[in-house]
Amino acid sequence: MRLVFAGTPAAALPTLRRLAAEHDIAAVVTRPDAPRGRKRVLTPSPVAEAASELGIPVIKAARLDEEASARIAALRPDLGVIVAYGGLVREPLLSTPAHGWINLHFSLLPQWRGAAPVQRALIAGDPELGASVFQLVAELDAGDVFAARTIPIPDGATADVALDTLADDGAQLTAEVVSGIHAGTARAVPQTGGATLAPKLTLDDGRLDWSLPFDAVYARYRGVTPEPGAHTTVDGVRVKILDAGRATDAETLLPGAITASRSALLIGTATEPLAVTRVQPAGKAAMSAVDWWRGQRGTEDLRAGA
Length: 306
Hints:
Elements: E1 2-7, H1 13-22, E2 24-30, E3 34-36, E4 41-43, H2 46-54, E5 58-60, H3 66-73, E6 79-83, E7 101-105, H4 117-123, E8 129-135, E9 145-151, H5 159-183, H6 214-223, E10 230-234, E11 237-246, E12 258-260, E13 265-267, E14 274-281, E15 287-288, H7 289-294
Parallel strand pairs: 1-2, 1-6, 2-5, 6-7
Antiparallel strand pairs: 3-4, 7-8, 8-9, 10-11, 11-14, 12-13, 13-14, 14-15
């Protein structure tokens, strides 16, 4: 089957590689090179780099405008496949491939339509995560679903770990749907149930509210790690929390109160404390949370969130 694949981040790579092994990918569409690292060097997207390795032509486009659409149409694809491209597909491009476009989305649609489904699901404390492959339509993530699957996620996984797991399983799910479309056996069904939205996260989404119960604080930490990053304020300085988990046999602390054990900082919530093992104070390198705390003056008076 002749495909056009659109994607940008590393989460799209398992699907790209799987489809490239089974079908003819006429071109890969991805976002333009972006600055990375401290020196802000322009760097191709992970999908662009993988496509080059696979010998697939690359179309770099910030949006699928008239020029990009014309280049895709000239390839005469049977199907378009999109995984986290980062831009909208509109008419007439939406109808250009013979079978239209399908989208691998990292949620159990209609839950968490939007840019950050995994992060929002973790923040909300959802008991399960999954992936869906659906027919792309003009409305955001609203098309009929070909296949959906609940995917087990490691206990306590942060958003990056969860996304890696979903990306691997989602590649198989997408490959099955593409094969079904090619064979003429794939059938999509309308989404049912109430929809929830998953807008892109902002820096403020990473702020931890210590007045909430542990489960809510920990869920937010998981959902915003590694980006935009969980953080709090201590003595007027923003501190990014890089590694945290459930404390064992710890005494209850007042919300925001901080104490140190041998291996972690314990920060109070409305219930049990959060154990923090690694932090990054603003303007400094990542370090052990306990080592950072020992370097603070007057620590007995300092509180998180203050």
